[in-house]
Amino acid sequence: MLNKAVIDLKAITDNALAVKELLPSRTKLCAVVKADGYGHGAVKIANALYGICDSFAVALPEEGIELRLGGIDKEILVLARPQKEDIARSVYYGLTLTAARAEDVLLAEREGAKQHSAVRAHIKYNTGMNRLGADTQAELLNLIRLAKGSGHVKITGLYSHYAAPEDPALRAAQTERFSRAVEAAQAEAGDITVHISASGGFLAGEYFDMVRIGILLYGYLPFETDKIKVRPAMKIYAPVIAERRLKAGESAMYGNFPALRETDIRIIRYGYADGLPRKRAAGQFNNRCMDVTAVISGKNGGKYYPVLTDAAALARSYGTISYEILTKAALRAEKIYRY
């Protein structure tokens, strides 16, 4: 029996509109729907946001292809560098590639020539996160010139990523480095879309030509702020499959974790294979098993137990972040969409 993930599409569109309301009129909104829309279902989310967002971003070509097959014909930016195994499908489905090294442009050009197809690419520039991207302006300009000299690759964007947008000093240093790169790139490439902000950068007031919004769409904040109000879009429920009363000193599940007093527990059909961590958190009795969890019964029983209602609170219980909770919690769940 699958768990039930109930997803409020209106919450997601309202969250997107709340972001858009704060953007300058010239700034585009790119919806980040990688990792299956942060666990919410990428195709459904993209279609719900189609009339609000200007473009979409994914991590992998396979994710972009899924959106194309799901009816999305707007620009889809793939944030990972292109690999030889992926390039043919990426070009065929009209995905916008990321270029960080000369070989990325050359790979795209060869495939574009083979398919007689134009290939769009955004250059990734490293401003200090030291993850991916061209490291110097000389490398950046070389990528632009390589594309200009090709017959099929067109550079349509330049982007970077903040390492800690909540840190004003670090953010300012990255913004300055990116701004210098933008000036050099635009002098060489002309009119291109430049963007550095994900949800955190947006909340810090850094916009440029486009913002890439992920976690805010799904109802969570990357850090505390009163700038915007968003509401969570997903709740997950697991079926209750048994009820037990433990005597003081008795344990349940693997290991010896005796009850201190008589305790009522419910066994729910949700284990660590369903996505949430094994270790015990608030409301649980002992650790999860692979397929079931023991929860301490409350006054209000029922056929289903709410495994996830607030990913931020749950993340605090596990010492992690809401992003990790959302992307994993619905692994074995039927997605039910409400409008």
Describe this structure in words.
The two termini are 25 Å apart. The chain is α/β, with parallel strands linked by helices. The chain has helices at residues 9-22, 34-38, 42-49, 61-69, 84-92, 102-115, 137-149, 168-189, 199-203, 311-318, 322-328, and strands at 3-8, 28-32, 55-58, 75-78, 97-99, 119-124, 153-159, 193-195, 210-213, 234-246, 263-268, 293-296, 304-308, 333-338. It is elongated, with a radius of gyration of 23 Å. The model has no long low-confidence stretch (mean pLDDT 96). Strands 1, 10, 11, 12, 13 and 14 form a six-stranded mixed beta sheet that branches. A four-stranded parallel beta sheet has the order 4-3-2-9. The protein has a four-stranded parallel beta sheet with strand order 5-6-7-8. The longest helix has 22 residues, at 168-189.
Question: Fraction of residues in helices?
Answer: 25-40%
User: Main β-sheet, in a few words?
Assistant: 6 strands, mixed
- Portion in strands: 15-25%
Distance from N terminus to C terminus (CA atoms, Å) equals 25 Å
If you compute it from the alpha carbons, what radius of gyration comes out, rounded to the nearest whole angstrom?
23 Å
Number of helices in the DSSP assignment? 11
Unreliable runs: none
How would you classify the helix and strand content by structural class? alpha/beta
Q: For this entry, what is the oligomeric state of its chains?
A: single chain
Q: Could you give the count of β-strands?
A: 14
Shape: elongated
Give the rounded overall mean pLDDT: 96
Q: What's the SSE pattern?
A: EHEHHEHEHEHEHEHEHEEEEEHHE
